[in-house]
Amino acid sequence: MTQEVIVGTGPLSFDEVVAVARHGAGVRLSDEALAAIDKARKVVDELAESPTPAYGVSTGFGALATKHIPADQRAQLQKSLVRSHAAGSGPEVEREVVRALMLLRLSTLATGHTGIRRETAELMAALLSHGITPVVHEYGSLGCSGDLAPLAHCALTLMGEGDVDDADGVRRSAASALAAAGLAPVELGPKEGLALINGTDGMLGMLVLAIADLRMLMRTADLAAAMSVEGQLATDRVFAADLTALRPHPGQAASAANLTALLDGSSVVASHRGPDCNRVQDAYSLRCSPQVHGAARDTVDHAALVAQRELASAIDNPVVLPDEARLESNGNFHGAPVGYVLDFLAIAAADVASVSERRTDRFLDKTRSHGLPPFLADDPGVDSGHMIAQYTQAGIVSEMKRLAVPASVDSIPSSAMQEDHVSMGWAAARKLRRSVDGLARVLAVEILTGARALDLRRPLTPAPATGAVVDVLRFAGVEGPGPDRHLAPEIENTLSLIRDGSLLAAVEETIGALQ
C-alpha cells in the first residue's frame, strides 16, 4: 500500500486522490470528521422523530418528494432508494475511477453536512483500505442529483449486495468480500441512502485524474515538439523569452522555456543557425507549438482551480446545517461547473494532438522534411517507414475532435420533469478519459518518429535532452532506422515509457526539471 490518506482534516489534495484511486493507498477518517459526522447525525435523528416532513428522511425522492413515509417503512425507503438507483448499464468503469468516486463521497460525508452515521462512513473507508471495488457501469449518471447510478452501486456494496472486485481483482459477491475482510454490511438509517448517492464525485474523480495525466502530457508534448523542431531543421529563435514576453500567457511562457531548454546544445539546430540560413519562418505547427501547448496548459490550470473548489465542497441534498439544527434542500449537486471544464479539457487535448500529428506528418513528406527520406523509410518503395503510423495518429486525432464536442450543452429531462435540466458531466468525464488516452498515443508516434529522424541526421548530434530520450527508446528495444518491421509494439513501448514517466525522467536528469 502506498500510504494512508486521512480524510476530514481539510480538502483532499490532487496527490491524495491519485494515491488512493490509482495507487491503492488506504483511507482513515480523522477524529474531527467523526465528531462532525456524529453532530450532523443527531440532527437527522431528531428530524426523524418529528411530525414535520423532512425530504429524504420522512418523504419519498425526486418527483415523489410529496409522499410521506411512515416511520416503520423508512428503513425500507433507504434500501429501495439504493436498489432502484443502482440501475447502471454498459461496460464496467475502471477501478481507479470507482476508487476516486468512493473517496470523494467519503470526503463529503466527513464534512458533517450529510447526516450519515459514523459506522456507514467508516465502512466506506474500510472498503477502500481493503481494496474492495464495487462494479460500476458506464451509463446511469446524468450529472445532476449527482452521479446517481454509479454512487448507488457503491452504496449497494455497503448493504452487502451486488458484485465487487476484491483486492486481487477477483469478482465476487459483496457479501462474501465483506465477510472475507472481516467487515459487516450496514443497515441504512434515515437519510443515509440519499447521502451516499447525491454528489458529483464520479465526474470530479475523473477530472482530478485527467488533470494529473494532462500535466504530465503537456510536458511530454513540449518534448515531442522539440524533437520535431530539431529533426526538421527548424529554428529555436522563435521561443526566446523576450518574444514570449510580448504575449504574457503563463502557459505559453512555460512551454517556450521548455523548448529552449530541450534544444540547448543541439548540433542539429546549430548546423543551420548561421547567416546563410534561409529558414526565415517555420510552419505554424513548429513555430506556434508554445502558443498551442501553452493555451492547453492554461486550460488545465483553470480546470484545476475548479477541481480544487469542488474538493473543498460538501455536496448533498438535502444538506444538514448542524449548528442551526436545519435540513435544507439545495442545488449544489448540479454538475455544471465540473462538466464545463471536462469539456474544455477535451477541446485542449484534441488541439494538442492535432498539432502533434501535423508535426509528425512533416517528417514523412520529402518535400517538407529537408533532406530526410520519404516516410523515413530505409528503402522507399520497398519500405513504407512510418507512413501508417501517421495514419494511426490521424485516426485518433479525428476521434478526439469528435470527443471534443461538448456533452455539457445537452440535457434530457428526468424524474417526471422534476429534474428538468441536467449537466451530463459524467458523460463529459467519460469521453475526456478517452481523449487523454488518445493524446498519449499521438505523442508516442511523434516521439517515435522524431527519434528516427534524429538518428538519420547523424553525424549531427541531438541536444543532450532529446538525445537522452533517443537513448531510452533504444535501450528499451525501440530500434533505430532500418528495414520495415512490426511497428505496433514500438508504438506501445513508447507509450509505456511516456506513461510511466521514463522519458520525462531521462530529460530532467539531463537538464533539470521542466516547467
From TrEMBL:
Protein localization: Cytoplasm
Spell out where the chain crosses the membrane: none
Write down the superkingdom of origin: Bacteria
* Enzyme class, broadest EC rank: lyase
Gene3D superfamilies recorded? Fumarase/aspartase (Central domain) (1.20.200.10), Fumarase/aspartase (N-terminal domain) (1.10.275.10)
Q: Where is the signal peptide?
A: none
This enzyme catalyses: L-histidine = trans-urocanate + NH4(+)
EC no. given is 4.3.1.3
The record's listing under SUPFAM superfamilies reads: L-aspartase-like
Which BP terms does GO give this entry? Answer: L-histidine catabolic process to glutamate and formamide; L-histidine catabolic process to glutamate and formate
- State a GO cellular component annotated for this protein: cytoplasm
Which NCBIfam families does this entry report, sorted A to Z? hutH, PRK09367.1
- Family according to the record: Belongs to the PAL/histidase family.
PANTHER family in UniProt: HISTIDINE AMMONIA-LYASE
Q: What is this protein called?
A: Histidine ammonia-lyase
UniProt organism field: Nocardioides thalensis
At the highest ranks, the source species' classification is: Bacteria, Bacillati, Actinomycetota, Actinomycetes, Propionibacteriales
